[in-house]
Amino acid sequence: MTPDIQRRICIAPAVSSKIKEDTVTLLLPNPRSGYPARYAIQDGLLLEIQKVDPEGTRSWFIHEAVQSDGSLFLMTPIDPVFMFIPILEIMRQQTSESQGRFITLDSLFDSDQYTSLRHLAHLNHVEKHLDLVCEVRDSGMKTYRLDDDKVMAWLKKKVEHLVAKFSTSTALVESVSYTESLPEECRQEAITLASLRLVCAYLNETWASKLSADYKFPELDKMENRTQAPLVTVAEFSKRTASMELDDDLVTAAPKEIKKPKLTPGQRKLANASKAGMKPISSFFAPKKTE
């Protein structure tokens, strides 16, 4: 008897009929937490996989079968540079006496404990992406080392890009709807703050703190309880933007919320799940054992 095939409903970017390669799903370190998360590579693009749990009990009818898991999976583009930054930071091995080492492209994604990383070397324009945040040496073979100044410049451009594109996303506009009756200076600060939070959602605590320190919000600081302003959730932002034509440079994730929303049953299970056995990103690059 042929075993049952588990099927899922997934929304992903359209793929040209000329593309022959299958979509590859991967387990990669989340750039913010360092813990494993699901991603995919489709047509040389890196996609983030978001699972949206339904409220209550739901199921899907797929052809002649019923899928009892009524969850919806969304696959949205993510700039791979966000994935590269924590890996490059670990691999350069910077110390108080040394700026760190240069590494080749092959070495960057070489991990015996996390073999999925090797697929990142085959993304579109991977060397161009590395050039944006690395000091590059080319003496017959290119080598790379993370450059903190380049990283900060790139992150600020991301924030500026989101500010410029803010009005094109209903989800983002609604995230600052509380400023509609406020002066324009205050509204512009709120837009910048929301864009900053969106970028920080893909950064670890160290980089998020460095980036945030370069921004001031004097008008918002005059408001009481500004941190309680409503923010769009990750799932809601993904649902609203899934059918839109996404800009390749647009970060497709929502900021970390200060005021916690009501959790779905699936989210509660995830929040209460034990992280025992999960390894942070730093463990994937431990020195190889020699016999």
UniProtKB/TrEMBL annotation:
Keyword Transferase tagged: no
Pfam families to which the protein is assigned, alphabetical: RNase_H2-Ydr279, Ydr279_N
Keywords: Nucleus
Record-annotated Rnh202 triple barrel domain positions: 20-79
Main location as per UniProt: nucleus
Location within or outside the cell: Nucleus
A GO term from the CC aspect: ribonuclease H2 complex
InterPro entries membership: RNase_H2_suB, RNase_H2_suB_wHTH, Rnh202_N
Gene3D superfamilies tied to this protein: 1.10.20.120, 2.20.25.530
GO biological process, one term: RNA catabolic process
Transmembrane regions listed in the UniProt entry: none
Span of domain Ribonuclease H2 subunit B wHTH: 82-211
Function in brief: Non catalytic subunit of RNase H2, an endonuclease that specifically degrades the RNA of RNA:DNA hybrids. Participates in DNA replication, possibly by mediating the removal of lagging-strand Okazaki fragment RNA primers during DNA replication. Mediates the excision of single ribonucleotides from DNA:RNA duplexes.
Protein name per UniProt: Ribonuclease H2 subunit B
Gene, per the UniProt record: RNASEH2B
